[in-house]
Amino acid sequence: MDLAWLEHPARRPDPAARAAALARQALLTKPAGALGELERLAVTLAALQGRTCPTLRQVHIAVFAADHGVAAAGVSAYPQAVTGEMVRNFAAGGAAISVLARELAASLEVVQLGTVNDPGPLPGVRRDWIAPATANFLDAPAMDDTQLARAFAGGRHSVTAAAQAGAELFVGGEMGIGNTTAATALACALLGDDPQALTGAGTGLDAAGMRRKAEIIARALQRHRDHLADPRQALRRLGGFEIAALAGAYIAAAQQGVAVLVDGFIASVAALAAVRLNPACRDWLLFAHRSAETGHARVLAALQAQPLLDLGLRLGEGSGAGVAVPLLRLACALHAGMATFAEAGVSDKAGC
User: Fold this and answer.
1) Could you tell me the pTM of the whole model?
2) Are the C-beta atoms of 147 and 237 separated by less than 8 Å?
3) Do residue 49 and residue 63 come from a single domain?
4) Domain CATH code at residue 242
5) What Å distances lie between residue 287 and 166, 182, 264, 346, CA to CA?
6) Distance between CA atoms of 115 and 132, rounded to whole angstroms?
7) What is the CA radius of gyration of the chain?
8) How far is residue 147's CA from residue 213's CA, in Å, rounded to a whole number?
9) Phi, psi for residue 109 in degrees, rounded to 5
10) pLDDT tens across 82-125, in order?
11) Residue 144 within any structural domain of the chain
12) Parallel, antiparallel, or unpaired for β 125-127 and 169-175?
C-alpha cells in the first residue's frame, strides 16, 4: 500500500482569520489577556477554521482498538481478553468515552483493528481488521509493512468520513492491553530516552511490575536499535495498530483542515510520531490533559504542548479529551458572545 500520502502537505492555518480573531479579542469587555488560555484557544481555533468566530458544535470521537503481542510478556495487570470485552462495552454504551460522547452530543465511532478476543460484528463498530494482534516486538517487528499501511489508512478513513460529515473537531482514543508498553518503547525510540525514565504503571502495575516492563522495553530497543532513527520504522517495529491509526488520523486531519484534540500518553506518543513523519501537522494539534502516566510530561515537552487539564487521568479511550471539550466550547462561546466595549457602552482603557 502506498504511504506517500503521509508526506502530503498539511493545510496552513488562516493568518487573516487569526488576525481578525485577535482584533475581536481586543474589543471585548475585559482587560487584555484576562481570560488567559481561553483567549489563545479561541484565536487558534479561528485560524484553524478560517473564520473570526469558531464553533465546535460537531465533534467526532474515534476509538481505535487493537491487541499487542508483547502482552504475552506479562506487561499488564489485566488479561488480553479485556480489549475485546471493552469493544463490546463501547458498543453497548457502558464505557467512560461512551458516556462522555452522549453528554457532549458527539458522534462516537469504534474501530476494531484486531483483538485476540474478537467479539465479532457489533452495531457502531467499524471493522478495519488487520490481525488478532501485533507480533511480540521482543521476537520480531510488531508490524510488517502492509499492516502498518493498513493501520495508517484506518486512521485516515475515520478522519475523512468525519470531515465529510462536517466535524469541527476530531478526538482519537485507543484501547489495547499492553499499549502503554508499546507507546513507552516508541517514545524512548523517538526521544532517545531511557526506559527507566519513561515507564509508568499503565493499568496499575506495582513497582516490581514497572521494573519488569522497563526491562522488556530495554530489550526491545536493543533488538531493533539499528532501525529506530527512522520514525516510520520505529513505529512499525515497536508500535501498535491503534497507535499507527492515531498517527495516521492526526496527519490526515491536518491535511483535511480538521482540528485535533489529543488525549493522554498513548495518543500523545502517536502525535509525536505523526509530527516526526509530517512536521506541519503540529499546528493542528491541541492537547487535552497531562495524564498520570510517567512519560507523558516528557512527550508533551518534546511537542512543546501546553495541556488544558491536569486531573491525574490515565484511562485512555479519548476520555481526557472528552472532559476537555467543554473548555474549548466555552472559549468559542466567550469569544463570539461577549459584547465589545462599544456595544456595551463600557469605557475602554485610556489611551497614551
Assistant:
1) 0.96
2) no
3) no
4) 3.40.50.10210
5) 21, 21, 8, 35
6) 5
7) 21
8) 25
9) -125, 130
10) 999 999 999 999 999 999 999 999 999 999 999 999 999 999 99
11) yes
12) unpaired
Answer yes or no: do 137 and 156 share one domain: yes
The residue to which cell 502503554 is assigned: 180
**Grid coordinates standing for 128?**
478495519
d(CA 217, CA 199): 9
Low-confidence winner among 28-42, 49-63, 70-84, 313-327 (lowest mean pLDDT): 70-84
In DSSP terms, which residues pair with 108 in a beta bridge?
61
Q: Which of 221, 197, 224 is nearest to 210 (CA)?
A: 197
Q: Is residue 102 part of a domain?
A: yes
Helix axes 231-238, 145-164, angle to 10 degrees: 100
User: Does 139 share its domain with 48?
Assistant: no
Sheet holding 107-114, edge to edge: 125-127, 107-114, 59-66, 169-175, 259-262, 285-287
Q: Let me know whether 92 and 48 are in one domain.
A: no
- Centre a 10 Å sphere on the Cβ of residue 35 and count the other Cβ atoms it contains: 19
Sign of the C-alpha dihedral computed for residues 78, 120, 96 and 258 taken in this order: positive
Average pLDDT, the chain: 95
Angstrom distance (rounded) from CA 295 to CA 191: 11
Task: Judge if 185 and 38 occupy the same domain.
Answer: no
Work out the angle at residue 122's Cα, subtended by the Cα atoms of residues 117 and 126, and round it to the nearest 5 degrees.
Answer: 90
The range of the structural domain enclosing residue 235 comes to 59-327
Q: What is the pLDDT of residue 351?
A: 37
Residue type, 235: L
What's the CATH code of the domain at 11? 1.10.1610.10
Residue 211 neighbours by CB under 8 Å, 6+ apart: none
* 104 and 43 part of one domain: no
Q: Which residues are known to be catalytic?
A: 317
Residue 352 lies in a domain: no
The residues that bridge with 285 in the sheet, in sequence order, are: 260
Q: Are residues 232 and 217 in the same domain?
A: yes
In a domain, 1, yes or no: no
The grid coordinates of residue 313 equal: 487521568
- Based on the fold, state whether residues 29 and 74 are members of the same structural domain: no
Residue 21, C-beta contacts closer than 8 angstroms, at least 6 positions apart: 42, 43, 46, 47, 52, 53, 54, 335
Domain count, the chain: 2
* Main-chain phi, psi angles of 168, to 5 degrees: -100, -10
